Amino acid sequence: MATAARKTGGSLAVKESIYAWEGKDKSGKIVRGEMRANGEAIVNATLRRQGVMTTKVKKKVFRSGKKITDKDISLFTRQLATMMKAGVPLLQSFDIVAKGHANPSMSKLIMEIRSDVETGTSLNQAFRKFPLYFDPLFCNLVGAGEQAGILEDLLTRLAIYKEKTIAIKGKIKSALFYPISILVVAFVVTAVIMIFVVPAFKEVFKSFGADLPAPTLVVMAISDFFVSYWYLIFGLIFGSFYLFFQSWRRSLKVQRFMDRALLQAPIFGAVIRKATIARWTRTLATMFAAGVPLVESLDSVGGAAGNAVYLDATKKIQAEVSTGTSLTVAMQNANVFPNMVTQMVSIGEESGSLDNMLGKVADFYENEVDDAVAAISSLMEPLIMVVLGVIIGGLVIAMYLPIFKLGAVV
């Protein structure tokens, strides 16, 4: 049996902890539960007012866990939806999911949400206290589900939405990770050759007493530069990347510039655009199917797309829709959606099945991303091999040319 914890001034204190307690009620029956409070004295006093004589109060200690990821939130949503569909009470569902989760940090978060719900806070308000993990879209859908009495259905939709979003992000990352990792390894190998291998050849070539070929002289000059200024080269490269990514994270102007640049990038730009459209349509389909009004749905859609270009376009679409313009016309005016998308939306509006059509568009573009990533992977492998062959092979040939020349003279 769980007992309600007391709130302090309408919000939770910063230093509150979760306490497990055991005691006897007025009938002498042994009862147990958990409570969030500032200390054991408050737990004892609160339970005493409720007619419970405590025999044991112990602060729960959570093991430090890994960082909470989107995958953790997605798994939690899926598990909670499954529990509720099976008829398990909400608080008991939280207990089961928290105890079974592999990440202690996630277990602690779930128990904190459970404590809020136990005190009478609505589920969506409990989620809103943790905006780092539950975005407005998540909270709005949960709120809509609570109001309509279809919370388990909305949680299932949310779980599907999050799983598909994570999958499409993973595909984009996999498409970008392979070539970037290969290029980084190539740079490190080249730097090692320049700093350690070429100088050894240089000492050997000094005893030849003959003019060295031009490619060899160029490579040796580059090697001398690496040996003399290797700390500046590595410091400048890593420092530039660090400053760039910090600016990308913190500067809105840099984010907008990079979002536009990524959409226009050769090869990868088309994949990123398709992935963005897939997230945009999937989010709007999920919100609209949950019964959230279109104008309110568009509040969450732009941010969920993950691109400033589509965020600006969504704000423009929302402004036009709020004045009575159809969604199709507003999307056409935004000029960021392919004709196929606007035609499907038009059919959905005319037939009254907008959420279904948006879902079909999302499915189509998710499949397009799958095909594009597979095509890029097959294209990049031979391309990278050619680049590495030219770089490494060029260095080897440049260093062996004097030996070949000496052999011809002999």
Describe this structure in words.
The chain has 410 residues and is mainly α. It is built from 15 helices and three strands. It has a three-stranded antiparallel sheet. Helix 7 (151-206) runs antiparallel to helix 8 (214-250), helix 12 (308-322) packs antiparallel against helix 13 and helix 13 packs antiparallel against helix 14 (339-351). It starts with 16 loop residues before the first strand and ends with a helix. The relative contact order is 0.08. Residues 1-14 have low confidence and may be disordered.
User: How would you sum up the major sheet?
Assistant: 3 strands, antiparallel
**N-to-C series of helices and strands:** EEHEHHHHHHHHHHHHHH
Discrete helix count? 15
Main-sheet strand order equals 2-1-3
Overall SS class: mainly alpha
Please tag this protein with its features.
single chain, 410 residues, mainly alpha, 3-stranded antiparallel beta sheet, 15 helices, 74% helix, disordered N terminus
List the helices and strands and how they pair.
Elements: E1 17-24, E2 30-37, H1 40-49, E3 53-59, H2 70-85, H3 90-100, H4 104-118, H5 123-128, H6 136-148, H7 151-206, H8 214-250, H9 252-264, H10 268-289, H11 294-305, H12 308-322, H13 327-334, H14 339-351, H15 354-409
Antiparallel strand pairs: 1-2, 1-3
